[in-house]
Amino acid sequence: MNKLQKIKNLVIKNNIDAYLVPRNDIFFNEFSKIEDNQLQYITCFTGSAGIALITINKNYLFVDGRYKEQAQKESGSNFQIIDHNIKNVVKYLKGKIGYDPKLFKFLEIEKLKKEKKRLISINENLINK
């Protein structure tokens, strides 16, 4: 079983519909150790900005225009590449969305909650598991 399928199984086990994976580490560093770069681990994307949404049926990688071609080459076989802006991300958040609260800024989560998104804080990071 590959790592992406393992994450999908954990999504089901945690009774959520999707899981958000940001690029940053717990200190919000732009550059982090390879073992702390969960976005790269799960998507193979090596750019310095992006966020992934893993659902049971589909995977999305949100990147800005600088990285679109790179993301397509590195991750396009397993992820649909989408232009990263908050409106695009919000549009894809459906159902119960799990996230690691240590990897998101409070204001980011509050902004998504204002959009009526059901965010579920999962203290044990699914990528590390």
Topology overview:
Blueprint lengths: L2 H11 L4 E5 L15 H6 L7 E5 L3 E5 L4 H8 L4 E4 L2 H7 L3 E4 L6 H9 L3 E4 L8
Parallel strand pairs: 1-5, 3-4, 5-6
Antiparallel strand pairs: 1-2, 2-3
Beta-strand content bin:
15-25%
Q: Termini, distance in Å? A: 14 Å
User: Helix amount, in percent?
Assistant: 25-40%
Could you give the count of β-strands?
6
SSE order, as H and E?
A: HEHEEHEHEHE
Structural class of the secondary elements? alpha/beta
Overview of this protein structure:
The protein has 129 residues and is α/β, with parallel strands linked by helices. The chain has five helices and six strands. The chain has a six-stranded mixed β-sheet with strand order 4-3-2-1-5-6, with helices on both faces. A hairpin with a 3-residue loop joins strand 2 (51-55) and strand 3. The radius of gyration is 13 Å and the shape is globular. 30% of the residues are buried.
Brief summary:
With 129 residues, the protein is of the alpha/beta class.
List keywords for this structure.
single chain; 129 residues; alpha/beta; six-stranded mixed sheet; 32% helix; globular
